[in-house]
Specification:
With 726 residues, the protein is mainly α. It is built from 28 helices and eight strands.
């Protein structure tokens, strides 16, 4: 737990270092603000999700304490339900009320500051996370590494990106800290379920962990990922406890308390989705938490009933129960069974269309190294250290940390967006690895430098107390607290030097990368888009909608004056926030997909179907179906975003019918082939090409370029390009 001993001068030094790390993290993230010059606040805001978060803040301030669970100002003509919680925009709204921010520039100014401040708070929090998994030195290292770690964690928390991702990290980390405290608190306590006094402390910590879980859940339903982590840890730890001949009442108390609170809190909060999906606030969460509670009770009951039997009985019976339960669930409740299976595949799997969403990309080795560089090495070292510690002595909270880290690592490997979660685990495991190595190496290094004389020894070595541990037990060892005088070995010194070098490289590389990004790559709004959408808002007919009204989905109908604005989904929130008009598609990837070919006349007519349509007749039919009055294109839709459009239109063919990659001899080196992306005739027939390349006008063909391919082994000729008339 958190112990504040103000009589110990060392604690003031620790507090000072942690505050320095926190301020440094805040400064890194505020560099775009410090360099913005005369630019206004809106120009600093990223063009996608941050704009919609600002829209939500405005709605909350205008309808206190209301929250718009239904959004009529997007996805015309259907509107949409909001699937994440109100906590993050409500925090910004409260800050605006405290600061007296009422105008849009003032609200933006407050909103831009909240994510960097949350990141600075996480740095402080990480000191306690590191301390619970090591000691105060591990805590300092964890706070320091968190202050400089880069990747998505940095980009979702710097000045310009107002989104709930940083709040997800804050409250999920707080939950993991409290859950770990609860697990650690039972270490020296014999729990008797009939004696409340024997577990009142662990019960209190479990209640706090449950509250932290609810805070994370009220930010985003993705918090259920941490329920999965708890579930995996619980199974593993029950098996470990059975192997070590100890009981697991502490897991029973913690899990039942945490997830009963989650169920109660969610029911009081209100089920917002009539379905059972786990990505929304549906009754599916209640089923999942009940399953976790029931599973914990079953695990405890099996352990109790198999007491005295051979150790292999427990995992064998457990496996049999899982198989039987899965079979029964598959037959008796296929909807719930499919929910669990489909949710796992959706979360850990990939689909062609998800690859068109940047944050849903799979993690590559290059991206992983770019984000966390040498921290990945220390991350692996921290995992190995915890495995070693648990081979020597039981540390259930470290088992939890390993499960937490590995599940988040796997999640990030499948979807790069979860880098913002993984950064915490990278910093923690880097601190654990560094703290462990230096804890073993410091006495050896000190003796090598100061000499082996007793008078030269550090005080903590000279004043080692006698071993009073029970027979057969080893005394707990900390950083610099070793029994006797360790012999000087080159191996531990070399390992310490390597670890120190890796840690320094991790800190320097990450801080440099973050600083460079903050200086050179702020999320500045595209001025052309801003100018165009401001013009659209000032010069297009009113929609008959009140921008600051929260509409009831049960009674809402669009007025006759309403209409849609067609563009690619990336720009939907800009249309809503800047123009105060209603986009047909938005960054929730709604209104995007459309049936390929002629089916688009009657099927799901989305932005992809419109922009890829090969005929004006088909395209106009889509606009009529969607009630669209204006279409907005840009050069990226015509070029770099085109493959994404084609993939949403037809995932199996994607951009293949429209673009071909050929290899042609380089101009300066005919022995080297360079790739060339060539457009086919079908590309020029698409609506996005007709609108953006030819301004929607009929343009006669004056000439084409074609590529002749020949087999050099047969003809002796290389490929060449030639102009040819139509």
């Amino acid at each position: 737990m958190i112990h504040l001993d103000f009589k110990n001068p060392r604690n003031y030094l620790i507090a000072g270092v942690v505050i320095f790390f926190s301020i440094f993290a805040l400064w890194l993230r505020l560099i775009p603000m410090l360099n913005m010059g005369h630019a206004d606040q809106l120009s600093m805001v990223a063009m996608d999700d941050p704009l919609y978060n600002l829209r939500q803040v405005e709605l909350i301030l205008a309808n206190i304490p209301g929250y718009g669970w239904f959004e009529a100002m997007t996805h015309y003509p259907y509107g949409t339900s909001i699937y994440w919680g109100p906590l993050f925009p409500t925090i910004i709204a409260i800050c605006c009320l405290i600061a007296g921010a009422t105008t849009r520039p003032e609200i933006i100014g407050i909103g831009l500051l909240v994510p960097p401040v949350m990141a600075a708070v996480i740095v402080v929090l990480m000191y306690f996370v590191g301390k619970v998994f090591g000691d105060w030195k591990t805590g300092l290292l964890a706070a320091g590494f968190t202050a400089i770690v880069t990747g998505q964690f940095f980009t979702v928390s710097w000045y310009g990106y107002i989104d709930h991702h940083i709040a997800e990290v804050l409250f999920s980390t707080l939950f993991c800290l409290m859950y770990s405290y609860a697990v650690v608190s039972e270490k020296k306590v014999k729990i008797d379920l009939r004696d409340f006094g024997s577990y009142k402390k662990i019960l209190l910590l479990s209640v706090l962990a449950g509250l932290c879980y609810l805070l994370g859940l009220f930010v985003m339903p993705t918090m259920i990922l941490f329920a999965l982590i708890v579930g995996i840890f619980t199974v593993i730890q029950f098996v470990v406890d059975r192997y070590r001949n100890r009981t697991s009442e502490y897991l029973l108390i913690i899990n039942v308390t945490v997830f009963l609170m989650a169920i109660l809190g969610l029911l009081l909060f209100g089920v917002k989705d009539p379905g059972i999906g786990l990505s929304t606030y549906s009754i599916g969460h209640v089923y999942a938490y009940l399953g976790l509670i029931g599973g914990t009770i079953l695990l405890y009951g099996l352990a109790y009933s198999l007491k005295g039997r051979e150790k292999y009985w427990y995992p064998a019976v457990l496996l049999a129960c899982v198989l039987c339960f899965s079979g029964i669930l598959y037959i008796a409740a296929p909807q719930i069974y499919n929910l669990l299976i489909s949710s796992l595949f959706a979360f850990f799997g990939q689909q062609p269309v998800t690859e068109t969403v940047q944050e849903a990309h799979g993690w590559s080795l290059d991206r992983a190294w770019s984000s966390f560089n040498y921290g990945l090495i220390l991350f692996a070292g921290g995992i190995l250290v915890m495995l070693y510690n648990n081979m020597k002595e039981e540390h259930p909270h470290q088992v939890f940390a390993q499960v937490w880290s590995l599940v988040i690592f796997l999640s990030t490997w499948q979807h790069v967006r979860y880098e913002y979660y993984l950064a915490i685990n990278i910093a923690l495991m880097a601190a654990v690895c560094s703290g462990f190595v230096f804890g073993r190496a410091w006495p050896v290094i000190y003796l090598g430098i100061a000499g082996s004389g007793k008078n030269n020894l550090p005080s903590e070595i000279k004043e080692q107390p006698k071993d009073r541990s029970p027979k057969g037990k080893h005394p707990k060892k900390g950083w610099g607290k070793h029994e006797g005088i360790p012999s000087f070995t080159y191996l531990i010194v070399i390992l310490a030097i390597i670890t120190a070098g890796t840690g320094i490289l991790f800190a320097y590389t990450s801080a440099s990368y973050s600083y460079t990004n903050a200086v050179n790559d702020p999320f500045n709004m595209n001025p052309d888009w801003r100018e165009s959408l401001e013009w659209l808002g000032n010069n297009s007919p009113e929609t008959g909608m009140d921008y600051l009204t929260i509409y009831d989905p049960g009674t809402f109908h669009y007025p006759e004056k309403a209409y849609g604005v067609m563009s690619w989904w990336d720009y939907g929130h800009m249309i809503t926030y800047i123009s105060q008009r209603i986009p047909n598609a938005n960054p929730f990837q709604q209104g995007v997909a459309g049936d390929a070919g002629a089916a688009a006349y009657a099927g799901d007519a989305g932005a992809a179907a419109y922009f890829i349509s090969p005929s004006e007749e088909q395209a106009n039919a889509i606009l009529d179906k969607l009630g669209t009055r204006y279409v907005v294109t840009d050069i990226e839709m015509d070029t770099t975003k085109f493959p994404a459009m084609a993939t949403w239109y037809n995932p199996s063919l994607a951009a293949d019918p429209y673009m071909k990659t050929m290899f042609v001899p380089a101009q300066n080196d005919p022995n080297r082939l360079d790739p060339r992306l060539l457009n086919t005739q079908q590309y020029y027939l698409t609506q996005v090409s007709r609108l953006h390349n030819f301004d929607g006008s009929m343009t006669p063909c004056e000439g084409v370029y074609y590529i002749e391919y020949a087999d050099p082994g047969i003809t002796g000729y290389r490929c060449r390009s030639s102009p040819m008339g139509c």
